[in-house]
Amino acid sequence: MVGEAALSRQQAEAVKLALTEKIVVLTGGPGVGKTTVTRAIVDLFESSGCTVLLASPTGRASKRLSEVTGRDAKTIHRLLEIDPVAWEFRRNEERPLECDVVIVDEASMLDIELMWALVRAVPDSGRLILVGDVDQLPSVGPGLVLRDLIASKGVPMARLTEIFRQDRESQIVMNAYRVNEGKAPHFNTPARAGDDCTLVSEADQERIVERTVQLVGQDLPREGFQPQDIQVLTPMNKRALGTVRLNAVLQEALNPARPGRPEVTRGEKTIREGDRIVQTVNNYAKNVFNGDVGTVVSVDPAASTVTVQFYDEAAWYEYDELDELELAYALTVHKAQGSEYPAVVLVNHTSQYIMLQRNLLYTGLTRAKKKCVVVGNRQAVWTAVRNNRPARRYTRLRELVTN
Fold it and tell me: SS3 helix, strand, coil % of the chain, rounded to 5?
């Protein structure tokens, strides 16, 4: 169990707030110990005989939550027992969750509809703890749930701000804070051995594609990263540096066609055994959701099916269902939200000016745990830092909570 001595004063105050309030928001940037506080909260509630349920909006985020807490964690859809036929949650105010505490990680990804369903299912006697970084990108769905709850000042909140020593030594962490403060990130020129956040400066788009392939296929593996540990992120799907083009090039480099290996082509998309795949829509019948990433383990031309391993379970797709899947060697930063990867290659170029925003760059940097390589030009990085005007969303949650 995480004891009081293991916590800073700020962290201990956050734990105390969670133990005494019915609903609490825990927020803070990278390196401030949100995971440590979450583990302490779980330990203390369980030691008191309470039943604690853990959840996250996406499958990858729930898997990470399970790993860092040592407890079972589910997606919110699975926690609320989605009915794939009726498209309704079986858990609601009439059949609430059987627990004393619900803890939701990556709460910045909660949209208003999922939050409404979650609140309905928390028992009247239960507590709800929302953990997330409010400075990341907002949810893909409608609303600004976490930001509105904090701005309302009607919900008890603990904001962790103390960056711990080992994280103050991380260039990834410190550059993320610089970006969030409107300052340009610092990259050593030339890069030094041991740097965990570097810039590969390229202005030509084709050279950026070539350097991205080289980083994923050669440079980062030489530093000890396995191919499955490396994720390419980019702001957009289309254009020369979008996910569609990068995925095609990376697939050919990392998982090329081989004689005797089955594959299936649908339109311009080819799927092979061994490919990294992302689910693009919620599929309640298969129990897989938008953003879930898996690996193709088999392509069966005789049965016209593709089998994808997602985390701890497999899903089977008929060929006419393959529009739900896309290659995932490269993902948009939005798709990667809620996930962490040992190494990230972050494409950032002025040709993507429409999407160059501070919170997108901040979110992309903080997806990396051990290494982040930004590939692009400094002008694009500085454009993103200066653009702190994300698209506005009009909601009434803040006013409703305040009233």
Answer: 35, 25, 40
Distance CA 280, CA 247 (A): 15
Residue 246: burial class (beta carbons within 10 Å; 0-12, 13-18, 19+): buried
> With contact defined as beta carbons under 8 Å apart, do 78 and 288 qualify?
no
Query: How big is the chain by its Cα radius of gyration, in Å?
Result: 21
Please choose, from the candidates 276, 325, 319, 275, the residue with its C-alpha nearest in 3D space to the C-alpha of residue 300: 319
Alpha carbon distance 205, 143 (integer Å): 35
Give the pLDDT band (50/70/90) at residue 389: confident
What is the structure's pLDDT at 292? 87
Q: Give the model's pLDDT for residue 141.
A: 84
Amino acid at 68: V
Local structure of residue 321 (DSSP, 8 states): G
Which residues in 42-78 are b (16+ Cβ under 10 Å) and which e? bbbbeeeeeebbbbbbbbbbbbbbbebbebebbbbbe
Scored b (16 or more CB within 10 A) or e, 152-187 reads bebbebbebeebeeebeebbbbbbbbbbbeeeebeb
Instruction: Please tell me what DSSP assigns to residue 216.
Output: I
Kindly state the tokens that stand for 47: 């030691």
More confident residue, 276 or 282: 276
